[in-house]
Amino acid sequence: MTQREFLVINGPNLNLLGTREPGIYGSTTLADIIAGLEARAADASPPARIVAVQSNHEGVLVDAIQEHGRRASVIIINPGALSHYSIALRDALTAVGTPAIEVHISNIHAREEFRHHSVISAIAHGQVVGLGVDGYRLALDYCLSTFE
Ligand code: CA2
């Protein structure tokens, strides 16, 4: 039997995690977050393989969703600022049809008004919002117990 695969997508500027604005985004780097998810997924029963993609470019993320999304059991996605306006990202997620869990490190509802609306939310299976970088692990634990 082939191992289940989870696609983890991070959008623009999330490569800066742990280097700036620790008051909002914490002091953990994206590399640390991904390494933590990989270790947890590998230890799970049954295990899962993490395919992680970060890009500052909308089209690269659309390509990654098209390339890996259909094979994945679930997509854990923090679209970054693209959450608020990228119909292309939303259409890519809809097209592959794989359930998506939307993660936001900060509480977007408690920030500027332009962050309150996500165009991804309505097509997401669920969301984790405002729980810091722990949101990625919480999303993963849900996925490990929910998606084959
Ligand atoms: O809270 C989140 O996870 C966001 O998706 C983060 C995006 C923001 O545009 C969304 O409204 C909410 C921004 C990511 C920027 O990440 C940085 C990390 C460290 C330093 C600077 C930016």
Tell me what the structure shows.
The protein contains five helices and five strands. Helix 2 (30-43) runs parallel beside helix 5 and helix 3 runs parallel beside helix 4. Strands 2-1-3-4-5 form a five-stranded parallel beta sheet, sandwiched between helices. The chain has a single domain, classed as Dehydroquinase, class II (Rossmann fold, 3-Layer(aba) Sandwich). The chain has 148 residues and is of the alpha/beta class. Ligand CA2 binds at residues 13-14, 16-17, 20-21, 25, 78, 80-81, 83, 104-106, 108, 115. The site of ligand CA2 has 16 residues, from loops.
What keyword list fits this structure?
single chain; 148 residues; 35% helix; Rossmann fold; 5 strands
| Low-confidence sequence ranges | none
Helical content band: 25-40%
CATH superfamily: Dehydroquinase, class II
Shape: globular
Q: Average pLDDT value?
A: 97
The major β-sheet equals: 5 strands, parallel
CATH class: Alpha Beta
| Structural class designation | alpha/beta
E-strand count = 5
Rg from Cα: 14 Å
Q: Give the total of domains.
A: 1
Across the major sheet, the strand order is: 2-1-3-4-5
N-to-C SSE string, H for helix and E for strand:
EHHEHEHEEH
End-to-end distance? 12 Å
Write the layout of secondary structure elements.
Blueprint: E1 4-10, H1 22-25, H2 30-43, E2 48-54, H3 58-68, E3 74-78, H4 87-96, E4 100-104, E5 126-129, H5 134-146
The structure holds ligand CA2.
